[in-house]
Write a structure and sequence with these properties.
It is a single chain. The protein has helices at about 15-20, 75-85; strands at about 5, 25-35, 40-50, 50-60, 65, 90. A hairpin with a 2-residue loop joins strand 3 (about 40-50) and strand 4 (about 50-60). The chain has a single domain, classed as NADH:ubiquinone oxidoreductase Nqo5 subunit (Beta Polymerase, domain 2, 2-Layer Sandwich). It has about 120 residues and is an alpha/beta fold. The chain has two helices and six strands; from the N terminus they run E-H-E-E-E-E-H-E. Helices cover about 15% and strands about 30% of the residues. A four-stranded mixed sheet has the order 1-4-3-2, covered by helices on one side. A two-stranded parallel ribbon has the order 5-6. This is Ech hydrogenase subunit EchD. Pfam families: Complex1_30kDa. InterPro entries: NADH_quin_OxRdtase_su_C/D-like (IPR037232), NADH_UbQ_OxRdtase_30kDa_su (IPR001268), NiFe-hyd_3_EchD (IPR012179).
């Protein structure tokens, strides 16, 4: 991955995303990857004048992740997608689809996490 990588934590990620916005950075998207048992790696991707900056953090999948959708509204779509695909929750999303953005009602298991069931949708 090219560009600058800045390590963040769940305690400072929202503030760092706000710093990116105040610096004129454009929010591009989020990426996720499994970072060991019960851990999820998250990359927040930004662009300014064709230069990429990435915020990187590792989270415990059992703890809520602070949403950055209050800073960049478009992050809400990716956060909902990550919630659909992984067994994680984002705290403070501006719009929470409650695992219905991309998953059909008949899906009963979290796609990217083995043995995690989803409650049936009504």
């Amino acid at each position: 991955m090219k560009g600058t990588i800045i390590d963040v934590t769940i305690d400072n990620v929202v503030g760092e995303v706000m710093n990116m916005k105040n610096d004129g950075q454009r929010f591009v998207t989020l990426s996720t990857y499994q970072e060991g048992e019960g851990k999820l790696g998250i990359l927040y991707h930004f662009d300014k004048e064709y230069e990429d900056t990435h915020l990187r953090m590792t989270v415990d999948m059992k703890k809520p992740i602070p949403s950055v959708s209050g800073v960049f509204f478009g992050a809400m779509l990716v956060e909902n997608e990550i919630r659909d695909q992984w067994d994680v929750k984002f705290d403070g999303m501006v719009l929470d689809f409650n695992r219905t953005l991309f998953l059909d009602p008949e899906v009963t298991q979290v796609p990217l996490v083995s043995n995690v069931k989803i409650e049936p949708k009504k």
